[in-house]
TrEMBL record:
It comes from the Bacteria. PANTHER family: HTH OST-TYPE DOMAIN-CONTAINING PROTEIN, SLR1870 PROTEIN. This is NYN domain-containing protein. Gene3D superfamilies: 5'-nuclease (3.40.50.1010). GO terms for molecular function: RNA nuclease activity.
Amino acid sequence: MHNLDSRVRSGTQFLHQNDVALYIDWENIKYSLWNKDSRVPNATALKEAASKFGRVVVARAYANWQEHQHQLDPNDLYSAGIEPIYVPTRTYTSTDAVKTNNRRKNSVDVKLTVDAVDFCLSNPNIHTFVLVTGDGDFIHLVNALRSRGREVVVIGCSWSTSWQLTSMADYFIPYDIEVDPIYDKVGEDNTEDVDLEHAFKTLVEIMHDIRRRGEPNVFAQIRLLMLSRMRNFDERHYGFSNFREFMKEAERRGLIKTYNVGLIDRAYLPDEQLEVDVHTHMKGIPSNELSASGANTGYASSYPYKEDGRSMLIKLIRYISELERNSPYMSFNFMVENAANNGILPISVSEIATMLNIAIDDGIFKRETKTIYSKATNDYREISVFHLNRSHPLVIEATEEDMVSSES
C-alpha cells in the first residue's frame, strides 16, 4: 500500500491511459469528517482526486437520501458529476441505536459491493477502482477487484480509516491531507517534515499515544498516524523503499522494537512487554508432549487466581463466551484484539494476551487446527483456533449467569 505516489504527481502522460470507477460510501466519509472537524465532504475534490488516476467513467455515492441530514446532498453531487444511489434504511421497532446504525452500514456495504463487482465484470476497460470509505468491511471487495487485475485506491480520513483496508489497497489517499486539507499547503513550512530526526521523534510520540490509548500497534495503523501528524510524510523521502525499512531503522537506533505477532509486524516501546501468542509458546514443543489442555509451560501455577486477577479472568471468559456465539473459529489474536478494542478489561493489550496464554495453558480453552484458503496468497494454510472448555470450573462459573438468564 502506498499514498499518492510520484507517478500521480509527475504529470498526465501515464494517468489518462486508464479508465476509473469512483464509488463513495457517503455516510462513512461524511460522518467521519463531521464528527471530528464539523465539515462535510467536498464532492468536487473527490472527483478530482479520482481523475488523477485516469478518466472517471462512473462516479456514484451511496446513502439513504431521504434522511434529513442527506436530503440536500444529491443536487450538489449531480453538479459535481457524481450519481447519488439511494440505499433504503430498514427501520427497527427497537430503540437500540447500535442495531439501527449497523443495518444502515451493512445496507450500503452490500449495495456498493454488488454494484462495483458487477461493473468490474461487465467493463474490462476499467483499470482503477477508487473507493471512498474508511470501513474495514470493504476488504473483501478490495480483494475481489485486485484478484481480477484491477488497481484499487482507497480514500479515507487519516484518523478513522481501517488499517486492514489500507494494507490491502494498492494506494491510500488520506482525505484530510491530500484531497481537501483544512490548511492550505501553499507556503507551508515543510522543512521539518523531510528531516529524519523529526520523523523518528514523531514516531516515538505516536508509540506513547498508542500504548496509552490501547490502539492497534500494527505498522499500517502507525503509518496512518504518521500521515495525520506529518502532512508530507513519505518514508521514501528518507531513502527507505518501504515503511517496514523505516521502522527497522528506528529499531536499530533503539527508539522502538518490532516483533511479528500472528503474522503481522507490530511495534513496541523499548520497555514494553511483547505480545507473544500461543504459537510462540508451543514452537518447538513436540505434539505428543502436550496434554489434552495444552498445558506445559508452567503458567498454571503462576496466574493470580485471586481477587482482581480472578475477577478479570471471569469477565474475560464471559465476554469470549458471547464472542464465540457469532465467531465459531476464534484465533488467538482475534480474541485479544476484540477484547482490547471493546475495553473489556482495564489492562494493556499485552496483558490481555498474557492472560489468555495462561488460560489456554490451564485448560480453559480447547485448541484445534483448521485448514483455510487464503485469497491473499492463493493457497491453503493451517491456523490454530480455540473454543472455551465448557466443562472447566471457571468457565462454568463465568457462564452460569448467562445460562440462568436464557432458561428464564
